[in-house]
Amino acid sequence: MTETIILPGAGARVEADLDPTLDLEAAIDQLRERRNAVILAHYYQDGEIQDIADFVGDSLDLSRKAAATDADVIVFCGVRFMGEVAKILSPDKTVLIPDAEAGCSLEDSCQAADFKRWRDGHPDHVALTYINCSAEVKALSDIIVTSSNAEAIVRQIPETRPILFAPDRHLGAFVKRRTGRDNMVLWPGTCIIHEQFSERELVKLKVRHPAARVAAHPECPEPILAQADYVGSTRMLLDYVTRTEGDEFIIATEPHIIHQMQRAAPGKTFISAPGADGRCDCANCPHMARNTLEKLYLALLNDAPAVVLPEELRRRALTPLRRMLEMSGPAASTRAA
Ligand code: 13P
Known about the structure:
alpha/beta; 15 helices; 39% helix; disordered C terminus; binds 1,3-dihydroxyacetonephosphate
């Protein structure tokens, strides 16, 4: 269990009390200005949240934004570990998240006590940990990585140094294949949404759309990645479909990113990769879906839920996050919404 304290906000107004005629976008705009707040949103958020955000990005770009902002308040529309990252990097800011229950299956798969035992059993290994984990697991790690920098960071580790990679075994295996590193030990975690895609149904879809290119997130299992023309983080997938010629793209990641793809390349067609039943709605992340415009408004109004971390934990988690930022190279431009 995370040591993060989420302040619930005493006497907080709740969704059920909201006036149904309230113009939420206008009310959020007013509060954003009054509070000097910045709204950050991941590509997996509902389109209406992406549209009202100041910045939409992948995990790395959003971390950079959270570290660099001069706003007083950061409202992080994503999942809880992303709010924690913002607080670790910007401790003097108030960090609000619309729904304190928005978790992550990868984070859940890697509890700090189990991770510590694993680390202790491999004392000569460097621990590279995917950002989709709790602050406690970050604090026990050497370097944090995201899907956009994992390969580049592994390449910076001397080849003779063995690596522990947690918690996503598919991302770890992808990086292993790309770098040819045999000395990487993988934690057995997976993302529930990327596990939903069906290789069989994807092959059938490709037969029906022979000109379509397949763009996949590295959290997908290897048989899905083997069908892909391109593999990358959410921002990399967005860049790929924007710059690549072709009218049709099959997208193997959480489908809300298609909102940005349609905005960036309105003439192109984007099809979600299918699940085992051949349908394309299997990969909606239930955690990301907890956030709504109503909850975003209430977070700004109530100043809650707010992320608060014990200072000693925050400091320990900051070291591997800082290493990640130092080893990630120059920032790609973060997309304004
Ligand atoms: P990126 O945003 O780095 O592509 O990662 C996606 C993800 O796992 C969000 O939880």
